[in-house]
C-alpha cells in the first residue's frame, strides 16, 4: 500500500470511513499522519547518523513511504544523495536494482 501514494490515501481513508469517521475527520487524520514534522525521528537518530558519517560509514535509506522523507533528514542537518525511482504500478515490480548498480553491488550479495 505504501508503494503507491494514491492507493495509500484511498485505503487509509476507506479504513477510517469503515470505522465510522466522517470525511472531514478522516482527511484531517490522514494529513497529520502524512506530516513528517509531526512524526519526528527518535532523539538519537540525527546524532547517530552524523557520527556514522564522520567515521566514513555510508548509510542509505530505502523508503516506499507515501510521503517524501528527504525533508525530515534535511531538517536535522542530514542531507543525502537521492535516487528517485518511478512509482510502482505493482508491488511485484522491481526497481531496487538501480540502487544496487549505483553502489556497485549485486542482488543477494553481502558486499
Automatic annotation (TrEMBL):
Name of the protein in its database record: Uncharacterized protein
| Species, as recorded | Modestobacter italicus (strain DSM 44449 / CECT 9708 / BC 501)
Amino acid at each position: 500500500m505504501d508503494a503507491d501514494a494514491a492507493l495509500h490515501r484511498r485505503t487509509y481513508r476507506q479504513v477510517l470511513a469503515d470505522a465510522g469517521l466522517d470525511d472531514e475527520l478522516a482527511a484531517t487524520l490522514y494529513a497529520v499522519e502524512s506530516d513528517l514534522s509531526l512524526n519526528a525521528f527518535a532523539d538519537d537518530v540525527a546524532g547517530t547518523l552524523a557520527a556514522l558519517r564522520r567515521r566514513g560509514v555510508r548509510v542509505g535509506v530505502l523508503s516506499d513511504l507515501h510521503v517524501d522523507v528527504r525533508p525530515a533528514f534535511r531538517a536535522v542537518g542530514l542531507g543525502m544523495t537521492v535516487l528517485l525511482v518511478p512509482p510502482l504500478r505493482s508491488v511485484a515490480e522491481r526497481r531496487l536494482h538501480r540502487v544496487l548498480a549505483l553502489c556497485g553491488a549485486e542482488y543477494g550479495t553481502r558486499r
